[in-house]
Amino acid sequence: HEPQWRSVSRLFKRTVPRLVELKMAAGRRLVVTQDHPVVVWEDGHLTQRAAAEVRPGDRIPLLAQLPRSKDSTEPIDVISAVDEPLIVRLPRAWTPTIEVRRALRDEMPKADRRHYWLSRSELPVAVFTALEPMLALDRRDLEVRLSSPKSNTTPAVIDIDADLARLIGYYLAEGCCSPDGATIRVIWTFARSKRDSRWVADVCDILSKLGIRFRVEERESTTAVIVSSRVFGRLLRDVLECGSKSSEKQIPSVVLQGPAELRLELLKGLFRGDGCVTSSTHGTTVKVSRLTPS
Q1: CA–CA gap between residue 292 and residue 294 (Å, rounded)
Q2: For 10-32, what is the mean pLDDT?
Q3: For residue 137, how many other CB atoms are within 10 A of its CB?
Q4: How far is CA 270 from CA 21, 76, 78, 250, 291, in A?
Q5: Residue 58's CB: how many other CB atoms inside 10 A?
Q6: Computed from CA positions of residues 283, 173, 64, 60, in that sequence, does the dihedral angle turn out positive or negative?
Q7: Where are the beta strands (DSSP E) in the chain?
Q8: Helix (H, G, I), strand (E, B) or coil at 237
Q9: Confidence band, pLDDT 50/70/90 cuts, at residue 72
C-alpha cells in the first residue's frame, strides 16, 4: 500500500464520555473514541475493529514514510498568486514596439500617464496582464512592487529551491509576520552569538539573492533581520501558509510534497534556530525540541 496525500473532506467535533489511548511498541500513541474504526493486521490481511476492541498484541499498520515526493516543484508566480494592486517593473533594456504603443492607448488613454509608466519601465498589473501576450517578456525577468515609490521589490517569479526552503525553516523557528501600517514586517530574530551570526548571514544572503531589501538591527541580546514588504509578507503568510505567529506556524505543503532536498534544507533552518534531538535511554522514543530567542 502506497501512502498518498489527500484533501480533508470534512471536520467535526463531538463530546464523548470516554476516550481510548492505543500505545504502540515503537512509542507512538493514538487517542480516539471507543467506536473509532482501527485497521488491524489479522490472519494475513487488513481488517477493521472498533478502538475499544483492540487488544494487547494486535498488529496495527503505521505510516513508515511520507508519500513519494515530487521530483520538482512549480515556482511561485507572484503576479498570479498575490491579490494586490501590483506595479510590474520591466527590464530596463526593453522597449515597446509600435503595436504595444497602440494597444497601450486603449488601456491608458491619457498620453501623460503612458509616458510616465514607460519612462519608468513599469506598468500597473492590470495593464501588464492585458498587454502581456505582445510584450515578449519572460516573467522571470520581471519584478513587482506596490504603488508607493519606496515599496520593496520582489521577483515576479520565485523558485521553491534549497535557499527558499532554508529561509522558511529559519522563519518557522525564529520568525514572525505582522501588519505595520500599509506594509507587513517580517522579522527573523537570532541570539547575538558567534554561532547565530552565521545564520543571520545566511538569511541576509538569501534575501540578497532574491533582490529583497532588508535591514539588520542589533539589539541588546538579539539580532533581527527585518523585511518591510506586504508582497513578501503575504507570500509567507497567505500563499505558502507558513502562519504569522508561533501558534499558526506550519510547514508549507509544497515543501512536504516536494523533493527530499527541500525538506532537508527546511529542517536545517528550523534546527539552527536552537533546535535539538534527544533520545530516551529506555525504549525507542526520540524527542525533538527547540528553544528560541524570538
Answers
A1: 5
A2: 88
A3: 16
A4: 30, 22, 25, 11, 11
A5: 13
A6: positive
A7: 19-23, 29-33, 37-42, 45-50, 76-77, 87-89, 122-124, 143-145, 154-155, 157-158, 175-180, 183-191, 215-218, 222-228, 275-279, 286-290
A8: helix
A9: confident
Q: Which of 164, 232, 176 is nearest to 203 (CA)?
A: 164
Phi, psi (deg, nearest 5) at residue 124: -60, 150
Q: φ, ψ for residue 287 (rounded to 5)?
A: -110, 125
- How far, in whole angstroms, is CA 276 from its chain's centroid? 22
Pairwise CA distance, residues 85 & 101, whole Å: 22
The pLDDT tens digits of the residues spanning 159-171 come to 999 999 999 999 9
Q: What is the pLDDT of residue 228?
A: 96
Convert the pLDDT of each residue in 74-92 to its tens digit. Answer: 999 999 999 999 999 999 9
The residue-averaged pLDDT of 235-247 equals: 92
Would you state the cell numbers that stand for residue 38, as one nine-digit string? 482501527
Mean pLDDT within 15-29 = 89
State how far the Cα of 257 lies from the Cα of 261, in Å rounded to an integer: 11
Spell out the residues 6+ positions from residue 22 whose beta carbon is closer than 8 angstroms to its own. 29, 30, 31, 32, 38, 51, 54, 60
Residue whose grid cell is 487488513: 46
| pTM beyond 0.85 | no
Phi, psi of 91 (to 5 degrees): -60, 140
